[in-house]
Amino acid sequence: MNVSLYIAKRYLFSKSSNNAINIMTLIAASGIVIASAALFIVLSGFAGLKDFSLQFTSYVDPDLKMLPAKGKSFQFTEQDSLELSNIEGVALFSEIIEEHVILEFDNKRKLATLKGVDEHYTQVTHMDSMVAYGFWFEKGTDQVVCGWGISSSLSLGVLDYAKQLKIYVPKPGTGQITSVKGAFNSINAVNTGVFQINEDLDNTYVYSNLETAKFLMNYNVNQVSSIEVKLHPNANEAQIRQALNDTFGDRFIIKNRTELNDSLNKMLNSENLFVYLVFTLVIAIALFNVIGSLIMMILDKKESLHTLFNLGTPTNAIKRIFFLQGSLMTILAGVTGIVIGFILVVLQQQFSLVMITPSLPYPVVIQPINFVVVFVTVGLLGVVASKIASGRISKALVRQTGN
Q: Do the beta carbons of residue 204 and residue 147 sit within 8 Å?
């Protein structure tokens, strides 16, 4: 067995005659255990929050969305519809119209985005399952479904026939506006439901029938803003995207669910990185205790080091003893912390120890990459700390006696 490793393990697992060194070593190891467990728990918590935040996109966003490469709308003919249906892997698709509108209810006004959808929309997405109050609008009516934020801002209830919701859209064209009445297309609508997803969507969207949106926008029969596509469960997304490009050329920009939520993903990833860096700093600070305990151990073992030097042990081998001791202590403490963190995360998954609300447990997700990230982070920082501490050993130090 390597002599340096053997002695390092003896120093690590045996008690020192100096009780202060034992306490210092225990504090250093405990700090690494706690910091490693905390980093693993936080990474698992952020993974859970990310999944929790993005799970709603599976309800409101399609697998693929086809947007016009130029302009705000495009012509989607029956031939286009047939060609899209014939692409292998495409299960369903829905024609969409989106435009900014003005909502008015009971002398209150609010800017919003009207999203007109056809009868296939609730099969392409599961938006109707997000309706918290009321129900999804019926086909062929001027009924709408609005977000919780819009409902609160306008004091808009469900099925209020006494006070109907008015929707205004500026008429397209050029020239001077001669009257307010002539400047807008408008309809009277009935709100049949209120959906609740997140603050942004709840304060932005109102859903209606596609025909209602076409009337307000002065769109013709085949004119739409986008096409939302649902794929078969085992479909190859890359192949379907290529098939769409081959079929329709450069008419469309195609985005998947991740690309549609690019800003949200970037924000969540940035927050995750920031928290990782903060906890890495905590681990680095905790490793100062490792440096301190190793230096105290070196000073305590001066007589033994002098003996080893006289027996022919080179200075570098003596340095390696304390380098290996510090590295082993850091790695063992880090692994222990990961195990403790893993156990706590499993307990949270099984027993909901921490709650966000009385009915909503804090989401956590165990990812294999988190084990690697914590282990590598603690291991690398531990190696650096051990290298710094062992670097204090010099020929002058080991030549001195313990007296």
A: yes
Token readout for 284 is 């680095």
146 Rama sector, left if φ>0, alpha if ψ -120 to 50, beta otherwise: beta
Tell me the H-state helices in 162-230: 180-183, 199-202, 210-217
Alpha helices in 55-156 (DSSP H): 57-60, 78-85, 121-124, 148-154
Residue 374: Cβ-neighbour burial (10 angstroms; 0-12, 13-18, 19+):
buried
Closest C-alpha among 101, 99, 93 to residue 71? 99
Helix/strand/coil percentages in the chain, nearest 5: 55, 20, 25
* CA neighbor of 201 nearest in space, from 331, 98, 279: 98
CA-CA distance, 228 to 403, in Å (whole number)? Answer: 82
**Would you give per-residue pLDDT tens digits along the chain (403 residues)?**
477 888 888 878 877 777 878 888 899 999 999 999 999 999 999 999 888 877 777 788 999 999 999 999 999 999 999 999 999 999 999 999 999 999 999 999 999 999 999 999 999 999 999 999 999 999 999 999 999 999 999 999 999 888 889 999 988 765 555 555 567 899 999 999 999 988 889 999 999 999 999 999 999 999 999 999 999 999 999 999 999 999 999 999 999 998 998 888 888 889 889 999 999 999 999 899 889 888 888 888 888 777 777 777 788 888 898 899 999 999 999 999 999 999 999 999 999 999 988 888 999 999 999 999 999 999 999 999 999 988 888 777 677 654 4
Alpha-carbon distance of 151 to 147, in angstroms, equals 6
Alpha helices in 250-367 (DSSP H): 257-260, 262-300, 302-310, 315-351
Q: Do 76 and 96 contact (CB within 8 A), yes or no? A: no
CA pair distance 270, 277, nearest whole angstrom? 11
Side chain identity at residue 346, one-letter code: V
Q: Are 261 and 54 in contact (CB under 8 A)?
A: yes
Q: Check if the beta carbon of residue 402 is closer than 8 Å to that of residue 306.
A: yes
